[in-house]
Write a structure and sequence with these properties.
This protein is mainly α. 70% of the residues lie in helices and 0% in strands. The protein has three domains: 62 residues, lambda repressor-like DNA-binding domains (434 Repressor (Amino-terminal Domain), Orthogonal Bundle); 141 residues; 51 residues. Helix 1 packs across helix 3 and helix 8 packs antiparallel against helix 9. The longest helix has 19 residues. It is elongated and about 75 Å long. The model has no long low-confidence stretch (mean pLDDT 85).
């Protein structure tokens, strides 16, 4: 069983002790000393606006306060999202299965996100076996139906939807991409917004490629490179460039020598940045 999450007053008391301040100094002009003692003992609630004033005074970020409150650990929800974002591809079966086991161990949490993510990951596992896009769409459709009517998506909902692009037909995709771009612009500065968008396009390209629709990935690979350059993600830049070279070869095999040199350059770069296994895998 995990550690007990500290109460707000208990956490404030710990921060005050670390700063080696008296109650009157730490809470000055925000709440009285008597009020503060009751808060720290847990017998008095502290309003959000007053908490924000205290944190701002001592240069403590809200996320940092929650981190301290959670015994210097990320919350379960954040850990799960981090682990999900570290799954390189929908073909990364070992990591997907590991996260599925994590979610099963958290079955006591009444988080809708955990339940929907579990279904999403299970559909990935099934797709890796069947390569059946219609089956994948069928399994993901209930998740989309659940989220489709939202006026705006939360970050967790965006994590789910951004990994379900494959359910949309070509006629729907343009509208969906436009809406997602708007959502991503709102979350650009939040957590891993850019990395989430990168993962969205890469997973979509992977699904298309596995369904022998390689040429359709060209536009999305170009978007991936743009985002990866901004993030300084050398691995993703190389992978996307390799796939684009593959498409150029399919479209015009007369460029053999030029493409050979380009692929050679990509593989050398991958080896230089320590991704030897991936260099072997993609070729």
């Amino acid at each position: 069983m995990g550690k007990r999450i500290k109460k707000t007053g208990e956490t404030l008391q710990e921060i005050r002790w670390n700063l080696q301040l008296k109650v009157s100094e730490f809470y000055e002009s925000v709440i009285s000393s008597q009020y503060a003692y009751r808060c720290e003992r847990g017998s008095q609630a502290l309003g959000r606006s007053r908490l924000e004033l205290i944190l701002k005074r001592w240069s403590i970020l809200e996320d940092e306060f929650l981190f301290i409150k959670n015994n210097y650990e990320k919350a379960d929800l954040e850990k799960v999202i981090d682990k999900f974002l570290n799954i390189y591809s929908i073909q990364d079966v070992n990591k997907i299965e590991s996260l599925i086991l994590d979610l099963q161990s958290k079955s006591g949490h009444n988080y809708e996100f955990f339940q929907l993510l579990y279904k999403l990951l299970k559909s990935y596992i099934n797709f890796n076996v069947s390569r059946d896009l219609s089956l994948l769409k069928h399994e993901l459709r209930p998740i989309w139906v659940r989220l489709a009517k939202r006026e705006r998506w939360t970050y967790c909902e965006l994590v789910l939807i951004s990994n379900m692009l494959c359910i949309f037909e070509a006629s729907e995709l343009k509208t969906m991409i436009k809406r997602l771009s708007k959502e991503f612009s709102r979350y650009k500065e939040f957590k891993n917004g850019n990395r989430l968008e990168l993962k969205m396009w890469w997973n979509y390209c992977t699904v298309l490629r596995l369904c022998n629709r390689v040429i359709e990935t060209k536009y999305f690979l170009e978007k991936i490179i743009q985002i990866a350059v901004c993030l300084g993600d050398a691995l993703m830049i190389c992978e996307a460039q390799f796939r684009l070279a593959e498409i150029r070869w399919m479209e015009n095999s007369n460029e053999d020598k030029q493409l050979h040199n380009k692929v050679k350059e990509i593989l050398i770069t991958l080896n230089m940045v320590g991704h030897n296994k991936i260099a072997k895998k993609i070729c």
